[in-house]
Amino acid sequence: MNCVLKAALLVAVGGWLSVSAALAQYGAGQQVEMPAQSGMPSGSPELLKQIGVTQNLGAQLPLDVQLRDETGVERPLQTYFTDKPVILAPVYFTCPMLCTQIINGIIKGLREVHYTPGQDFEVVIVSIDPRETAELAAGKKGSYLKRYGRPGTEQGWHFLTGREEEVSRLAAALGFRYAWDEATQQYAHASAIMVATPQGQLSHYFYGVEYRPNDLRFALIQSSQGKIGSPVEQVLLYCFHYDPVTGRYTPMILTAVKIFAALTALAMGSLIGYFLWQERKERRTPAATSSAANAG
User: Fold this and answer.
1) Which residues partner with 243 through β-bridges?
2) How confident is the model at residue 66, as a pLDDT?
3) 31-35, 97-101, 158-162, 253-257: range with highest mean pLDDT
4) Bridge partners of 66?
5) Domain containing residue 165
6) Where would I find the H helices in 50-184?
7) Is residue 293 situated within a structural domain?
């Protein structure tokens, strides 16, 4: 029985080490800070009051909004919502700084996500400036896709423009408020991207100009409604919680401990059962041998 107890102890220690390693790998115990308002322009207080982001989690996007693709063809937003989750980014292509950082942040984050645009999800970049053209959008798409560096994903990236009333309707549904600044001849706006389900319901908001790969990956898995994500990733989601205030996934330590503790208990029970069965088997063997010898 001593060997059984030793084995059980080893399994228990190994299980708790696995818990610690898993939580450490995904940043357990780290402090999560509020997103920096790097996208807030300097301007008059009146202008600043007009911009910002109101989270409309669960809201249905107006999929009948008409937007032009990079070839100049006008299509409903519904075109880009099929059976895949969608990353949306309201920007404008002639923005001198912030919008470039936002798109670069998407590209940087998605480079470390093994899902494929066009196959597993869609990326929809929408210009809030009604003066911008499809030709400009096409040029930007080509430039950013070179930076992304994954050939064959062109069909999953969409750089769209549209009429003011159509774009305004989409921005309102996204909760994205912006304003034209006459003094700088630029649009004043905050920095945020959104993720929506295949049906067009808003599920996640991410702020700033850098987006953590794990946050994007978890958001796509969760928003896909089971269509993407390995069984391991699906289980891992139970250990993390999307915080809409910070726009990040944070470890749910108690849930993680419960899951790994249950797995440890299962392993311990199986191992102890095996050793007990082995011990009983060994006891029976000498008895059977002795009986056979006496009978002979």
Assistant:
1) 248
2) 98
3) 158-162
4) 76
5) 45-228
6) 98-111, 134-148, 164-174
7) no
